């Protein structure tokens, strides 16, 4: 029987995009059919072994050209940026399940299902980009998305606090406003893709919240205090900037007290 962690290693250590997508979908199917073993295989390899494709080129965020949606090529540039976020999200889901061991089976099921959804998001956007005469890799991409993963490679509560509960949660804050802009442009295809992604992302953040508080409690730590502490330690500036989508973040497992804290800007 194939082993989940060996498949994770194949996905993380090899760059080709289409193989990664196919492997991700197959792995999720096979896990549901009881066809994958969760036995600890080889020791966990260092995060520096993770490989990304040569294209797109990764640039520091300040060097990534910003274009308005209404500018020529603006919609394609926007979806190229989203394709990159979804592509890195496939890695992030595989990496959390690969790197952190000894958790209940449900943990591995959750993150493999999320990897599968991220692969679907990427495919939806890649097809949309194709209709806009753009391929993933044609434009440079935001090079900072993997930094949080590298920084938290040895700390599961920090990974959960920073990736689902900061990075993906930020998507919940900004996507409704982006959808509103596409509504003004009357771009129904873009709207339906973004609606679909947003609905799934609420679930990803919710799983992040669920596992974050479970792991904190197991370690005898109070989750809300731990969230503040980890952000102070790992998040540049100490905490993300709003405005926050309270309604969706509550569904995704944030408490009112956490949102009140996030909304209070540090002096
Ligand atoms: Fe996604
Ligand atoms: Fe996600």
Map the helices and strands.
Layout: E1 2-3, H1 4-13, H2 17-32, E2 36-37, E3 58-59, H3 74-99, H4 105-131, E4 141-142, H5 147-151, H6 156-185, H7 188-218, H8 223-234, H9 246-251, H10 256-263
Helix pairs in contact: 1-2, 1-3, 2-4, 3-4, 4-7, 6-7, 6-8
Bound molecules: fe (ii) ion (FE2) (2 copies).
CATH superfamily: Ferritin, core subunit, four-helix bundle
CATH architecture: Up-down Bundle
Ligand list: fe (ii) ion
CATH fold descriptor: Ferritin
Helix content: 55-70%
Query: How big a fraction of the residues is strand?
Result: under 5%
**What series of H and E elements makes up the topology?**
EHHEEHHEHHHHHH
Instruction: Report Rg.
Output: 18 Å
Tally of DSSP β-strands = 4
User: What is the overall shape?
Assistant: globular
Tally of alpha and pi helices: 10
Spatially, the strands of the biggest sheet line up as: 1-2
Task: Give the distance, in angstroms, between the N- and C-terminal Cα atoms.
Answer: 56 Å
- Sheet with the most strands, sense and barrel status: 2 strands, parallel
Extract low-pLDDT stretches.
none
Total individual domains: 1
Structural class: mainly alpha
> Mean pLDDT across all residues, rounded?
95
Keywords for this entry:
10 helices, two-stranded parallel ribbon, mainly alpha, 267 residues, Ferritin, 3% strand, binds fe (ii) ion, 4 strands
Overview of this protein structure:
The protein is mostly helical and 267 residues long. The protein has one domain (62-263): Up-down Bundle (Ferritin), CATH 1.20.1260. Helix content is 64%, strand content 3%. It contains ten helices and four strands. It has helices spanning 4-13, 17-32, 74-99, 105-131, 147-151, 156-185, 188-218, 223-234, 246-251, 256-263, and strands at 2-3, 36-37, 58-59, 141-142. The strands form two sheets. The chain has a two-stranded parallel sheet. Helix 6 (156-185) runs antiparallel to helix 7 (188-218). The longest helix has 31 residues, at 188-218. The protein is globular, with a radius of gyration of 18 Å. The mean pLDDT is 95. The protein binds fe (ii) ion (FE2) (2 copies). The site of one fe (ii) ion has 6 residues, from helix 3, helix 4 and helix 7.
């Amino acid at each position: 029987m194939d082993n989940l962690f060996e498949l994770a290693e194949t996905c993380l250590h090899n760059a080709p995009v289409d193989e990664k997508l196919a492997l991700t979908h197959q792995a999720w199917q096979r896990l549901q059919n009881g066809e994958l073993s969760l036995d600890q295989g080889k020791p966990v390899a260092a995060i520096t072994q993770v490989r990304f494709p040569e294209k797109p080129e990764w640039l520091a965020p300040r060097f990534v050209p910003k274009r308005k949606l209404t500018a020529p090529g603006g919609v394609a540039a926007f979806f190229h940026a989203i394709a990159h976020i979804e592509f890195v999200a496939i890695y992030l889901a595989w990496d959390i399940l690969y790197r952190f061991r000894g958790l209940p089976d449900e943990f591995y099921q959750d993150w493999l299902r999320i990897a599968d959804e991220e692969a679907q998001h990427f495919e939806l956007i890649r097809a949309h980009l194709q209709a806009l005469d753009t391929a993933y890799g044609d434009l440079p991409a935001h090079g900072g998305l993997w930094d949080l993963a590298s920084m938290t490679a040895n700390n599961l509560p920090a990974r959960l606090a920073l990736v689902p509960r900061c990075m993906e949660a930020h998507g919940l804050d900004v996507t409704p406003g982006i959808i509103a802009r596409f509504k003004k442009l009357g771009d129904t295809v873009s709207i339906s893709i973004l609606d679909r992604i947003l609905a799934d992302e609420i679930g990803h953040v919710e799983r992040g919240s669920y596992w974050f508080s479970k792991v904190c409690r197991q370690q005898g730590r109070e989750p809300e205090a731990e969230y503040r502490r980890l952000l102070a330690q790992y998040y540049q500036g100490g905490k993300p900037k709003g405005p926050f989508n309270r309604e969706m973040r509550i569904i995704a497992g944030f408490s009112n007290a956490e949102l009140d804290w996030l909304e209070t800007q540090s002096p």
